[in-house]
Every structure is written in structure tokens, then in C-alpha cells.
Amino acid sequence: MSTPEAPSTADSAHARLPTPDAVNLIGLDLDGLASFCAGLGEKRFRAVQLFRWIHQKGEHDFDSMTDLARSLREKLKGRAVVQALPVASEQASRDGTIKWLFDVGGGDAVETVFIPEDDRATLCISSQAGCAVGCRFCSTGHQGFSRNLSTGEILAQIWYAEHHLRRRLGLPAGQRVISNVVMMGMGEPLQNYSALVPALRVMLDDHGYGLSRRRVTVSTSGVVPMMGRLQQDCPVALAVSLHAPNDGLRDDLVPLNRKYPLVELLGACASYLDAAPRDFITFEYCMLDGVNDSDDHAKQLVALIRGRVACKFNLIPFNPFPQSGLKCSPRERVEAFARILQEAGFVATIRKTRGDDIDAACGQLAGEVQDRTRVKERWVRILSPRLATQRETTPAGHAGAQPNVLQESSGEHQ
């Protein structure tokens, strides 16, 4: 992909700063935009026209929205903007993956990743600046949590990516780039529910991005009550970060499990399928060397899930980062784990790592977070004694070995 010589509509929109009381229309779903237009004395069909200009065409300049009445365009100029997020940086991977860092103000920045493949083009979107869940294998969680993103900040990520890439690729008008969206970037989407659902509705709206419910996926670490609400309010595809076959191990890897243990989580998954656009739940399982990757763990997983939830397993090779003290399971161990699941009748795939050379792979998104939860101090208190013990017990000749602090803390987690 080559950089365009002239800025695209999406590139230039962030330069137009709003007045303090102006409404950023990117953040309104169609009903919200209709209410806004009604407040200007305009009928709903004008909101539909405006909605199409913003999301289908990526236009931010009201004067260019030529089928809007001039009187409406003048009203909009004083009361509204179409405001993108400033792009702090862009990185391109050797495999075609692109990662953007968006400035969301207050010292926070979030990351968004575009992953092109032969049969699809997926955008991985962030929902929070940081994350409060604190999964042990996730770089975002080690940064702590600053705040939820607004609906507009969530949608600004797809708005920029879609329209920037259309121009960059030289696509004809109306041809979409992004076919799939996964809410798997920074943050736990279901802990930002009130902003998430309107954003999903814009992605699904035929006047917006027109995505299928099957092609929009929300990933959750297991916020059980909000899974039930999503089932009622906006059922899309669901991915659940499982990562362990028993409560003891999952308590350690995914702290939210202490509040919503596996029996509650699996019950919520089974219930969600009643309204889901797909007839299965995707269980994400990060493969951690010596922690959750043994044959016995795989057999426990089979026993846990069989007969409870229609699912498929997505085994994710761990993408190391310096603070984790964890290692990725060897490829042969991942394949052996997958075979046990497959022989038990489950679909089990091994995720292909994309964008790891630019830290854009699963679990690597970190951005910039003004941590309000002091999580880094807690990690130091937790990890330092374990690392010291590991160094004391490491045999001579293995001084460079990366410690597996989780395995040490609770044995084999059986």
C-alpha cells in the first residue's frame, strides 16, 4: 500500500476542531441523529441522508453534502462537526497488517489494527483506554486502566480506517474495504456497554457500514450480566476469552473469573446462543508454555465444555512482552493440544499470528494509558518475589531462561 499524495477526507477531518458545544455526529446512531435533526426542525429522511454521507461516504465537510438543503447545511455548521481522532502514528507490518495509534486526549492513546486476508479484511477496534480486567498474558492489562471510550471514539476508528484505506487502495465509490469487525482491541467491551451498543448499531446499519451480525464479533473475558443484555439488545457474534479448563487456573489467568466462575460463564454462553447470529460461541485459548497447555488441560477442557455449549476453539500462540514472565507453548505442543480437542469432536483452529513485528498481534496492544488504577505498582508487588525465587532456583547454564511466574505460583494448576 502506498501513501496517497493528497490527504483523504478521513485524513483531514481531524484538523477541523469543534466549537466547545458542537456535537460530533460520528458518535450518533441513526436514531440519535434523527433526534438531533428533529431538534433542528428537520425530518427523519434528512438524518438518513446525513448518516449516509458520514458513514458510507466518509464526508466531514457539510458543504460537500450536496443533496442536503442549504439551510440544513448552514444549521449544521454552527452546531455539529464530523470529527476524527488525531492519528499519532501508523505502522505497517511485513504481512500487510496496519496499526494506528489514535490520540484520545488526556495523555491517552488507543490502538486499532487492520488485518487483510484473502477472503476478508478485519478491523480490530479498542473500546477502552487500558483495561481493568488484568489478564496475566495481556499487554493492555499490564498498563492499567484510564477510562472508557465514547461511542464516537469507538466509531472514529472504523470511520478513519474504512475511508482512509478506500482512498489509499484507489477503490471505486461504494466499494467497502472492511468486511469484519472484532471488538478485541484495548479494553473489555462489555465493561463499556452503554457506548458499545450504539457503535455496534452503526456498524450493522445498512445506511452505515452495512456489516452482517455474523461478521461483527464482541470479545469478552466473561462479564456474565452484560452478555445477557447484549443477547437482548444487539446480538452479534461472541468470542469468550477462556484460557483455562478449571476455576483455579482461570482465577489466576483471568481475575474476572473470581466474580463470574466457569459454571456461570458457560451458562451465559449457552443462553446467548438462543439469539446469536452464529450457532456457536468461539472460545479463545491463549497457549502458555507449562501453564495451561498440557494434555491433561486439554482433556479437562473437553470434559468442561462437552454437552454444555456449541463452540469452536481458537488456540492463540502467546505473543510475549517483557513484563509477563511467560513463554509461548512450542508449536508441537499447540498442535498436540488441538488434536485432543479435534479427536473429541470439537472444531479447534490455531490462530495465525499477524502483525507481531509491529506489536499488533493478539494481546500485544498497549497504546498509551494514564493508569488510574495503579496496576503497575500491584504487578511489581506480585511479580518481584516470584522472579527472585525463579532466579534462585534456575540451574546453572539457564540464567537466560524466561521465568514462568504463573506456573511457579500455583504448581501445575490441576
Return the domain count.
2
User: Could you give the order of the helices and strands?
Assistant: HEHHHEEEEEEHEHEHEHEHHEHEHEHH
**What is the CATH class name of the largest domain?**
Alpha Beta
Largest pleated sheet: 10 strands, mixed
In terms of per-residue confidence, which ranges show pLDDT below 50 for 5 or more consecutive residues?
1-7, 360-366, 378-414
Gyration radius, to the nearest Å? 23 Å
Q: What is the terminal separation in angstroms? A: 48 Å
CATH A-level architecture of the largest domain: Alpha-Beta Barrel
Mean pLDDT: 85
Strand order of the largest sheet: 3-4-5-6-9-10-11-12-13-14
Strand coverage percent: 15-25%
Q: Give the total of beta strands.
A: 14
- The global form is elongated
- The fold-level CATH name of the largest domain is TIM Barrel
The quaternary organization reads as: single chain
What keyword list fits this structure?
414 residues; alpha/beta; DNA polymerase, domain 1; TIM Barrel; 10-stranded mixed sheet; two-stranded parallel sheet; 14 helices; disordered N terminus; disordered C terminus
How do the helices and strands line up, and which of them pair or pack?
Layout (H helix, E strand, L loop, with lengths): L8 H4 L10 E2 L5 H10 L4 H13 L13 H10 E2 L5 E6 L5 E8 L2 E9 L4 E4 L3 E3 L8 H5 L1 E4 L2 H19 L10 E4 L9 H12 L11 E5 L3 H10 L3 E5 L5 H7 L8 H11 L8 E7 L7 H11 L5 E7 L13 H13 L3 E4 L24 H19 L11 H5 L5
Parallel strand pairs: 1-2, 6-9, 9-10, 10-11, 11-12, 12-13, 13-14
Antiparallel strand pairs: 3-4, 4-5, 5-6, 7-8
Give a brief rundown of this model:
By secondary structure, the protein is of the alpha/beta class. The protein has helices spanning 9-12, 30-39, 44-56, 70-79, 139-143, 151-169, 193-204, 224-233, 247-253, 262-272, 295-305, 331-343, 375-393, 405-409, and strands at 23-24, 80-81, 87-92, 98-105, 108-116, 121-124, 128-130, 145-148, 180-183, 216-220, 237-241, 281-287, 311-317, 347-350.
